[in-house]
Prior knowledge:
Blueprint: H1 5-9, E1 12-16, H2 23-36, E2 40-43, H3 48-55, E3 61-66, H4 75-87, E4 92-96, H5 99-104, H6 107-123, E5 127-131, H7 139-152, E6 156-158, H8 170-179, E7 185-189, H9 195-202, E8 208-211, H10 214-225
Helix pairs in contact: 2-3, 4-6, 7-8
Amino acid sequence: MDHTYSDIAKMIDHSLLNPALTDRELELGCRVGVEYDVASVCILPYYLRQCAEILKGSSVKASTTIGFPHGGHTTAIKVAEARQALADGGQELDVVVNVSKVLSGDWEYVRSELAAVIELTHDRGQKVKVIFENCYLSDEQKIRLCEICGQLGADWVKTSTGYGTGGATIEDLKLMRRHSPAHVQVKAAGGIRDLDKLLEVRTLGVTRIGATRTVGILQECKRRLGT
């Protein structure tokens, strides 16, 4: 094995974004994140403050979404969401691009909106993942987004919300890694449901995945490592 348990656990953003999750389920999900020592818990925005409290003292980051899931919020609302998330203890913010503006070719709008969120978040010492929602985009549009995110200093580019018509594909991950500068990491979301798939995308240079099946993935990892 060319990895440790921690290498794998610290690739996982434990996703708690299903709108039907209850307060109790969100709390238990945060505790799962701590127990398995994942990279972050990505939670519904209203619960972020409680999430940050539960994670306090652990190495697990508190994360949430901005403009989720469709990206069509106004820039002012996305910035307000980011400001609120940072105040609530958010350390990593996953922001959805305005898909309509990408498809319309209004790149200046896309750039200025992402710049506003990234600048605010970086000023507070925290990080940003930019969600493309690749299922709606052409390769040329994905490449252009990678270039913009590289220029703006985004911390990750991310394939999808998990709530579009498709999730991460091997082809998209290769393309995003190839067209992103070294300082921008790649996150796969949607469809990474077992350890073998995680290991496959890891070989492509993916450093994070979004997962709802975190426990199964990490229990299998422990089993294979004999820990």
